[in-house]
Amino acid sequence: MLMIISASRRTDMPAFYGEWLYRRLEEGWAVAVNPFSKAAVRVSLAPDDVYALVLWSKNFQPFLPYLDYLDQRKYNLYFLFTITGMGGQFEPHIPPKEEMVEVFRYLSERYSPEHVQWRFDPVLITTEMGRDYYLERFEYLARRLKGYTRHCYISFANRYRKAEERFQKRFGNSSRWLELELEEKQKLVREMAQIAERCGISLYSCCQPELVGEGVKRGSCVDYPHMASIFGELVPAPRKSPTRAGCCCYESIDIGMYDTCLHDCVYCYANQDHRRALKRYCAHRPESPSLLPGEHQFNESKGSNQISSFFCQPKLIP
């Protein structure tokens, strides 16, 4: 049984929970928890059962010491690295963009530009940060990442209620979250696509098919066809399994949990509030089978509940 393991859409596991992930990989299994029902299943993390380990982060620096172990165990690693360069009160706990660019380059040199995907996501338009701001910031980063990645994923921030409330609380009347008309969004991403093309990078829309057009393709962050070009094919191939409207991702098992990320980004959809995330971070135990012990219905003594999402054998591309 080969699975794509996601670590994680729900939290920044490489930045904050690297020790937990290392322990789980060392023991060869973890408990994956449904964020809504709290039902839980045991997921094998043995190298022979993992087709690819998809790592999502805004700061891979703390996770670098674990890479030697993962390479020794021959895990196929696939990196989704978010760098927007917003910083400040928008992304208060993310290191400076130049530091993250250097980490990005290191990963690309260690593996390949195909292994490391850039996420310039989300674009959040405000009274201070408009079209010119994002074009300038995007071009700067695209130039710095030229030759170190082939793909960039982009979307506009979704105005979830909790994100809007966080924005209002943080900025008050000093800033406003603005919504561009669709034509304005499409024009902006077309200009970004032209910049990306000059840097040898293809631009993809994440969960927003209305942005697809000249120079902008519909993207899959968990992109099995691209993984297959790196790691070899799976037979049968995993099916698409969208996580929300507009999503084109392929099937994966996410082993993270919501309300655990400490970045405190103003646009975040995965956290209710920072205090709750901090409390849950302090409650986590690296030796626990799940990221948060006691917050699920899994009972190891009553059976493994081994997950079986798809059964495949790898076949390398000639």
In short:
This protein is an alpha/beta fold.
Explained architecture:
The chain is of the alpha/beta class and 318 residues long. The chain has one domain. The protein contains 9 helices and 12 strands. An 8-stranded parallel sheet has the order 9-8-7-6-5-4-1-11. It has a two-stranded antiparallel sheet with strand order 2-3. The protein has a two-stranded antiparallel sheet with strand order 10-12. α5 runs parallel beside α7. It is globular, with a radius of gyration of 19 Å. Residues 301-305 and 307-318 have low confidence and may be disordered.
What is the strand and helix layout of this fold?
Layout: E1 3-7, H1 13-16, H2 18-27, E2 29-33, E3 40-44, E4 50-57, H3 67-72, E5 77-82, H4 97-110, E6 116-123, H5 131-145, E7 151-156, H6 161-171, H7 182-198, E8 202-205, E9 216-218, H8 224-231, E10 233-235, E11 253-254, H9 274-283, E12 313-315
Parallel strand pairs: 1-4, 1-11, 4-5, 5-6, 6-7, 7-8, 8-9
Antiparallel strand pairs: 2-3, 10-12
